[in-house]
Each structure stands twice: as structure tokens, then as C-alpha cells.
UniProtKB/TrEMBL annotation:
GO terms for biological process: proteolysis. This is Acylamino-acid-releasing enzyme. It comes from the Eukaryota. Residues 60-545 form the Acylamino-acid-releasing enzyme N-terminal domain. It comes from Papaver nudicaule. It is an enzyme of class 3 (hydrolase). The lineage of its organism: Eukaryota, Viridiplantae, Streptophyta, Embryophyta, Tracheophyta. This enzyme catalyzes the hydrolysis of the N-terminal peptide bond of an N-acetylated peptide to generate an N-acetylated amino acid and a peptide with a free N-terminus. It preferentially cleaves off Ac-Ala, Ac-Met and Ac-Ser. Also, involved in the degradation of oxidized and glycated proteins. InterPro entries: 6-blade_b-propeller_TolB-like, AARE_N, AB_hydrolase_fold, Pept_S9_AS, Peptidase_S9_cat.
Amino acid sequence: MTRVFTNTTTTSVWLSYFLRPPPSPSVVIPNRLSPFFSAHPKQKFSTLTAMDARVSVSAKEVSQGLDVENEEEFASQSTLLKEFASLSTIEKAWVFKSDNGGSSRAMFSVGQPNLLGNKKRTYMLSSHIARESNGSVSFQWAPFPIEMSGGSTIVPSPSGQKMLVIRNQENDTPTQFEIWGPSQVEKEIHIPKSVHGSVYTDGWFEGISWSSDETLIAYVAEDPFPSKPVFDGLGYKKRGSTEKDCNSWKGQGDFEEDWGETYSGKRRPGLFVVNIVSGDVHIVDGISKSLSIGQVVWAPKNDDSDQYLVFVGWPSDCGSEKIVRKLGIKYCYNRPCALYAVKASLPKSETDKLETKGDRTQDKTAAINLTQGISSAFFPRFSPDGKSLVFLSAKSAVDTGAHSATDSLHRIDWPSDGKPRMSHKLVDVVPVVKCAEEDCFPGLYCSSFLHNPWLSDGQTMIMSSYWRSSQVIVSVDVLSGKVSRVTPNSSASWNILALDGDNILSVSSSPVEPPEIKYGYSTEKKEWNWLDISSPVSKYSTKVRSLLSALQFSVMKIPVRDASVDLTDGARIPYEAIFVSSKTRKSGACDPLIVILHGGPHTVLLTNFSKNHAFLSSLGYSLLIVNYRGSLGFGEEALQSLPGKVGSQDVNDVLAALDHVIEMGLADPSKVVVVGGSHGGFLTTHLIGQAPDRFVAAAARNPVCNLALMVGTSDIPDWCYVEAYGGSKGKSYFTEAPSLDHLHVLYNKSPISHLSKVKTPTLFLLGAQDLRVPVSNGLQYARALKENGVEVKVIVFPNDVHGIDRPQSDFESFLNIGVWFNKHFQ
Ligand SMILES: CC(=O)N[C@@H](C)C(=O)N[C@@H](C)C(=O)O
């Protein structure tokens, strides 16, 4: 994670391969396809004037890789993209009860890309929430936000009286823990790197939990650095010699496996407790070093002095005798994991630690596996009365091998004496939904849980979940298992931020409406009402508002074309595509269309606001965002219909969605381009190979082009097997040493096997540090296209990982996508 927002400046390496003769250095009149220009002739004029005044360049002086023809286009489009790229996003919120009856206070964490600094700026904005006697609610905002500089994360204490600020530091500098009171820092604790490395704040292993008396904080941090061999002029230096000696150097020592993409070089997550009164830190005992730890919470206090912690543990061998290493975990919910309980206190003595039982020696402090009957358990949450431990499970993903699948929710009734046992009965609260009938609950698909997700009845949890192409907020009664959708039945998307007592603080947005805060309350009739809350963050510029007000969107149901073949019921149900277009149609002509494809393949593109998509639609394109079968949010059978059929079923689903909008008269078949990343790049490159006459241009971000190459270089070789062969075969065939037969199948399922048919000009955006789909995949395919005389442009971002989401790289990527598409419609 730290690598994503490093302070280093990105210098993009431009490898422009224009096989056509170099364009003449004439000034290009912005083409007719861009409504940005046609809708705002004055802006166009002023942009060009500004450009003329600022730069007067000869063809030779133009930036490397930027053809002169496109420079005007670059300048104009970047002005538009800047409008969207610098918008702020509300990411988290905390609500604190006020002493004063009906009111409360909220703190919002807001993120904004800092393009010049190439990192994300995070700031805090506070508000007072007042509930009036007439039932209305008003938010009074602090006049200015405050930037959180250098802070890795903040975690308020349960009472809201204290706040922990963690500052992870580079190199050998100790990690800083600051305990803040209402007006000042009350305590500062520096934890040297010899105790542990950086605290995990990645949103997955991350777990930072205050004890109920607010004296202890349990958290997850990297194990300390292992000692490394030291050498000097005479050779190896024995232990005890000083390592800081300038006549010696440290060797590398043994290679240590990490969790792959975005975790490169990160050491094992271990469990620690700090006492904020004494400043003492201890590593929690009794946990096998073969477990990676995350998501720790305190168990309810029992009568004993012992306090227990509950955490998630991931085995290093991914729970399989066959697998000898950690496999990539980012986007991969199929890594087995279990909930464990362990005593938080330091062992009192060795005799207390070891007790002889017959001929067996038992470690009384060893962590206990609480969820032995299930292959996956994470996001542990205790009910407010401490009687239930509720958790989410991705057992469907683990058991089938799909990297992500439908979740299920489970409960353990926590022992009344507070002492965890080996065998707890697991109660299924919300099972996996196999076949999601249209407009019915499709199952749970959660990417996070609130720290405190409970309503005051103590049995209702509130959470966000994907529901077909939208994100919605649902309530779940953990005793009855009843799930209810609490957000309106519109097509917009909703994300929960925090609970304010029994009320819900959330954000809602759509492809044509930027995020707005919504405050939900339940009426006496048990219906949810939602209030629009005006906030400084949602004061979007007039330009953004006017561009978006010209757009509309709808969610289309796309009938399954091959419904007659052998399919499960869930795989026959229509899938969806989000169609974004201009409200006004210009004299019967259709705007050009961009087909947008998500990766995974088991993810989904939601009906929420996307700055980059808003930019592309504001350029004058319609968008067709296809949630082909295999996407999250449509039930388990639809999802599981894809593994084994990648490169055919998903490709045909996209083509059927495209035909659907063409048949409806919403798109012109001669004006279609396509873009996708990762598995979406796999689809993009498959489409230009399998349907070479249908796309005017294409753009692929870190695309999977050759599974036979990826299998030997990616952090998730198992993914290649599962998606190519299907779950059960893929899992059993998986090996680190693929046979020739395997490589043959992997190659045949890949876009590279259709390469000879490709003629579509294609832009490649590649992250040189990508461990998921290493840069070699995109480069090999791009070079092969070039060899065949196809027009190709490649941009490699040297410091980017798979997401290519560092602010400057994201900006440069989408600017190039916009320019590339416009260029090929000229
Ligand atoms: C599981 C996974 O990471 N698969 C990749 C090939 C992929 O498509 N990733 C998605 C999540 C992406 O959008 O990057």
C-alpha cells in the first residue's frame, strides 16, 4: 500500500510506436465528436488562445511520444479532465454523541488527489448534526477542513473521548502512536523497528481496536526485520559485530514470500498490544508464525482477569498441502482464513504457559480456531450485548477457487462465561444465494463492515452490499436472518459511512450525479426516509454540474443469448449493462460509443459516480458498461457460469450487450471503441481479435493477453488455472510447474491466440511494478501487434502497480484514452 502513494515523481516512459508516417505538424481543429468543444465554443476558444500565448513550439520540441497533431487535443482534454480529477471524495465518517440530547457531531475523512505532489491528500471535515423537534435534521459545518499530513490512520476510542493517530515512518524511524484528547496530544509512544515494522492500514489485514476501558489498543503490524548476514573486507562477519560499521555491508538473507500485488516486500502481519498508560508494547503470544494476522477485535470482557482478542488468521500455504507459498491476496477472497481467539495478556510464567495432560503438553496461551467448520471467516463483529460473534465468509470463493464470489453471513453464540472453546456451533444467518431471481435479493457482496454496524435493538446490522449493478444498504436481523433493502429502489448506488444511533449516514451517487450525503431515518411505519444533506464537499463547480446535467443513464437488462445450452438456472437470467448518454440527440446521429469492461472477472462496475467515466462521457461519448455473467451481485450460479469459459462466454456477453444497444438505435455500429483493465483488458484484446471489424480503437490497461506467460510470472498462477479450466479442474491441476498440455490450453484461451486477426489501433497503459499481470503480458502482445503492422501506442508507468491509480498516472492514462479515441474518430 505504501508503494502506491510514494513521494517519488513519476516519469512516464513513453514508447510510442506509430507505424504510419509521422503526422505533419499542422494544427488540428478539435474534432466534431467532442461536445466539450461543441457545447462550449467559448471555452474552446479561450483554451486555444491560452495555449497559443503560452507555448510556441516547433514539431521537434513537442514532448517525446506526443505527436504534434494531438497536442491541442491534449491541452483541451486535460483542462476538462482536471475538472473531474481534482474532485474530493468522502471516504469515512465517525459520529460522536453530544452531551446535549438529540444532537451529535460527525467527522468526515475526505480524499483528494494532489496531482502536483502525486499523492492523495486526506483532510478532516467536522459537522454538528442537530435534530429539530419537527423531525428535520441540520448539519452545521466547520468553516474549513484540516489536512491530515503524515498520519497513516486515525481511530477514535469507543467513548469518543480519545483519538489514536498512527504515523508509520520510513526506514529505521520508529512508528509513532499519538493519543489525542479534545484539545491536545495527551501521549506519544514511539515504537522502534526492532519491535515491529509499519502498522497495517491497508483495509484488509488492518485491525486497530481499543479495549473497552480504553487503556489498551490491539493492532496488526509487520514483524520486525529479520537479521541479515553482514560482510566486510574479510568476508562474513560473525554475529555481535556492529552493523553500522562503514566498512561492512548487509546481505539479503533468505527470500521471504509476501502476499503479492500491493504487498511487495511487506513482512508477515503480526498481532501486538500497546498499553497507552505505561507505553509498553507486547507481541501477543500463542500464535503460530505460519499465520498472517488481521482484523483484530476485543472479545467482551469476562469475569476473569483474562481478556481475549478475536482475529482473522490466514495460513501461509493458503490452507493446502499442495501449495508451498503465499499466493496474491489483493482482490482474492478465495484465500482460506479462520477466526481465532487468543489471550491478550502476557503469559505470567512458563509454568502457567505449559500444563501437562497425560502425555500431552498443552499450551494454555495458544490461539483457538473458532471457525473450524468453514473455509473462510472474516470481519468479526460482537453484538452490543456480547452474546453473538457475527462474521462474513467467502467460503464459496475458497471452495470453488473463484477469486471472489457470493458471501454468506454467520453467527457464533459467544459463551456466557466469556471463555472461547474449540468447537462452536456455527449458525448460518444469510446463506449464499444460488439463483437470484430478477429484482430479488441476490445475496451478500460486502467489501467492508462498519466498526460498529449495530442498531440499538442489538440484533440488526446495517451494511452496504452489491445488488446487481448497484450498491445498496441493507439491514440484516442476525437472529432471524431477515435481509431488507433500506435504500430506495432507484438505480443509484449507496454506501454507508456511519451510524448515528439508529440513523444512517451515507453517500449516494450515480454515473451522472456526483456523491451527495444522505441521512436516513426509520419512520414509525418502519420505512426508511432519506434526507439530502448539503455539504461543502458536494459544492461541485458550475462547469461540472452543467456537464453532468447534460447526461442521463439507465440500467439495461441483456437477455442471455446462449440460454439453450447446458446452463444453471441462475446463468440464464439476464445480466446488465449501464448505458450513459447525452440527454439530447443530435439530428438522428448517435454519439460514438465506448464499451467499458471491468476486471476480475468477478468484480462489478456499479452505478456510482466515476470521475474518469464522467470525463469520457463529457467528451461526447455514450458509455456501455457491461456487467457480463461472472460479475458480482447477480447470484452464485451466474457468477460460477464463467470459470472455464473465459474468452468465449464473457466475450459473447459483451457482444450481445453491444448488439442490444445497436438494435435499440442507441449506438452506431461503425462508431464503437472499447476499453478495459486486467481481465477487462483480456476481454478488450479478445474482442479486437475475435471481432476485428467492430471496434475503431481500443485501450487496454495492464491487460491479460497471454495466460501461458502470466501463469509463470503472476502472484496468482492459480487464477489462470481456475479461470481457464473451471473451478474444480483448475484447483486440482494447479501446479508451479505447468505441463506443456496446460500451457497449450492457457495459450488457446488467451487473446494472443487471435492476434493475427487484429487490426484495431490499440493503446496500452502498463504498470512496471504490477505483480498481478506483469508488464511482460501487455508488452509482448503490443510488440507482436507492432510486428504485424497494427498501430500501437504504449505508455509504461515505472512506479505503478496493477491499479495504475497514483494521481499522475491515473490522470495521464485517462487523458491518453480520451485523446486516442478522438484521434481515431477523426
Ligand atoms: C483476481 C485478479 O486480480 N484478477 C485480475 C486478472 C484482474 O482482472 N483484476 C481486477 C480486479 C482489476 O480490475 O484489476
